[in-house]
Design a protein that fits this description.
It is a single chain. By secondary structure, the protein is mainly alpha-helical. The chain folds into 2 domains: about 375 residues, Na+/H+ antiporter like fold (Up-down Bundle); about 130 residues, CBS-domain, CATH 3.10.580. A 4-stranded mixed sheet has the order 1-2-3-4. The longest helix has about 40 residues. It is elongated and about 105 Å long.
Length: about 575
């Protein structure tokens, strides 16, 4: 079977279909186990790729490479949409301090541990120092894709989430700068570079400036176009086209596609916050299939077969150093800027994921170490690639659940929701008002006495077994008053009309709202089960809208808490994590 899928003429639509169907199924399975969906995508990729059944071969994955670049562009664009100038104006310095602290701490910790491991394996001090330094620079990078996917899946918002968005947006730039320094220093240590290592720094700086400038220029053009495109379909086509153009030009100019797309999104959201909201909604609406393909191919590219035990020891040193560095650096940086307790405690746990940039830098590190004597029969570039591949796998498996745990513990999951999101998470019973229930034999006088103090306008009627047989509305009372001579003889069963199809108590509120709209009603009874039909509450459209609006307002107020202690708006509230 694997030989069939390795044919060069394999239709690309078949590759896309395999990735989307199996990836989505895997994500659903992992979600049922309480594990973020991105882990499911990667796990399915492992099974289909080089490590597993080799259904997706290297040839097949190369044909999907354009989709990967576009996925990185979409991720960068959506992150850029979170980078509002007001946030950076208020928290620019704290973000920079935390960024440097967690990035440099990871760099130093990995340099130390991997340097020792290199020396234990090779016995050469210069190779150990240079190799450890290059590994340290790679360790500072954080993969935004998996981290951001979890934040979107959890509908997270708040001080911790805002800080994570800012850091994963800037971590790649810091990693490039650190790698430029490490690359120059390692060359001098190995005796290869005798001149100045500032050209490497200059090149890294120009690359970052070029990426930001390109993204900003296309963002200006896209903003100009969206002001004149009122039609949704044309706006979608133009936005996606601009994003694809950004990624394509970034690849042509050999600059980071994530950073370029991030600059595009940041430019757009800061030029026109309200108008750009439509563009981000349009991109978000079709992005899920692209994410699925991207993460499945990430897993498929990880080749863990035949990795020697001593390479796993080097990988363990890398993971331990990077984890300790990220945790300690994020805590120290957050403490230095007096960030709230939630940010101090949980930020480091949101920075474990690592992928694309690390792989790219490992290739450059391999080139820097090429030509040096082999260690235990393995060339240094192959060792570097094997270590980063293995650690990327571990980081991508550990990182997303860690983000989920941290954001949930900080109380920020579910704060960035719409009314539709709330309706999917609440049950009909949770949203219903208490029902005033009448028996079929109740007289009109008894009915009127009981509803005198009620604000409701629809009331279930039940039989002797407690099952709902009908409904009485205020309109039915108006009709009964025309028959005043016989009014005192009327019973509830005479006043009631046929009951509408009710909502079942344990079903989602969204389903109940759909039933209400389908039947053209402003109310809907809620029953314990479709079989027994015992009323447990009533849904009223006005009351429901008010309840949803109040819950949204409450969550937004929680999400707008400041990340620094002592700021107006809630630093004190985060002195303990919200549960």
């Amino acid at each position: 079977m694997s030989e069939l899928f390795q044919q060069p003429h394999l239709p690309i639509l078949l590759l896309i279909g395999l990735s989307m169907v199996f990836g989505t199924a895997g994500a659903r399975l992992f979600q049922r186990m309480g594990i973020p969906q991105v882990v499911g995508y990667i796990a399915i990729g492992l099974l289909l790729g080089s490590t597993g059944f080799q259904v997706l071969s290297a040839i097949a994955l190369d044909r999907l490479r354009p989709f990967n670049y576009f996925a990185l562009g979409v991720i960068g664009f959506m992150i850029g949409g979170e980078l509002h100038r007001d946030v950076f104006r208020k928290y620019g310095r704290p973000f920079f301090v935390i960024l440097c602290a967690e990035g440099v701490a990871a760099f130093l910790a990995v340099w130390a541990l991997c340097g020792l491991a290199f020396y234990w394996i090779s016995g050469d001090a210069r190779t150990a120092i240079a190799g450890g330094m290059l590994f340290g620079a790679i360790a500072s990078a954080t993969a935004p894709a998996a981290t951001v996917d979890v934040l979107w899946e959890l509908k997270a918002r708040g001080p911790l989430t805002t800080t994570v968005f800012a850091l994963v947006a800037l971590d790649d730039a810091l990693a490039l700068a650190l790698f430029a320094v490490a690359s120059g220093l390692s060359g001098r240590i190995l005796g290869r570079d005798t001149g100045s290592w500032t050209p490497a720094l200059t090149h890294a700086g120009l690359e970052m400036l070029g990426a930001v400038g390109l993204g900003a220029a296309i963002g200006l053009a896209l903003n100009y176009a969206l002001r004149r495109l009122l039609d949704r379909d044309r706006a979608l086509a133009f936005t996606v086209g601009a994003l694809a153009l950004t990624v394509g030009l970034a690849a042509l100019a050999n600059v980071d596609p994530i950073l370029t797309s991030m600059a595009l999104g940041a430019t757009l959201t800061n030029l026109a916050p309200r108008r750009s909201h439509r563009a981000f909604q349009l991109v978000s609406g079709f992005a899920t299939p692209i994410y699925v393909i991207f993460f499945v191919t990430v897993g498929a590219r990880l080749n863990l077969r035949g990795v020697a035990l001593w390479i796993w020891a080097l990988a363990l040193a890398y993971v331990l150093g990077r984890t300790a560095g990220k945790l300690a650096g994020a805590w120290a940086g957050a403490r230095a800027v007096r960030a709230t307790a939630a940010v101090r405690r949980y930020l480091g746990r949101c920075l474990f994921s690592q992928a694309g940039v690390a792989i790219g830098l490992s290739i450059l590190a391999g080139e820097r170490l090429a030509g040096l004597p082999a260690i235990r029969g393995a060339a240094l570039p192959d060792i570097v690639m094997a270590v980063i591949t293995a650690t990327t796998f571990l980081a991508q498996i550990i990182g997303p659940p860690s983000v989920k745990w941290a954001v949930t513990r900080a109380g920020e999951a579910g704060l960035n929701v719409t009314e539709e999101d709330l309706a999917r998470t609440l049950t009909a019973r949770e949203a219903a008002d208490s029902a005033v229930v009448f028996r079929e034999e109740d007289t009109l006088v008894e009915v009127l006495n009981r509803i005198a103090t009620s604000e409701l306008f629809a009331f279930p009627v039940v039989n002797a077994r407690g099952a709902m047989t009908g409904i009485i509305t205020i309109e039915d009372f108006r009709t009964s008053f025309h028959a005043q001579p016989i009014a005192r003889w009327l019973l509830a069963c005479d006043l009631m009309q046929k009951a509408p199809d009710p909502a079942v108590a344990n079903r989602p509120l969204a389903e109940a709202m759909g039933l209400m709209n389908d039947q053209g009603l402003d109310y809907l009874p809620v029953v314990d089960s479709a079989k027994d039909r015992r009323p447990v509450g009533m849904l009223h459209k006005r009351s429901l809208q008010r309840r949803l609006a109040n819950e949204l307002l409450r969550r937004r107020q929680l999400a707008e808490a400041d990340m620094l202690e002592g700021d107006a708006g809630g630093g004190a509230r985060d002195s303990e994590p919200r549960r």
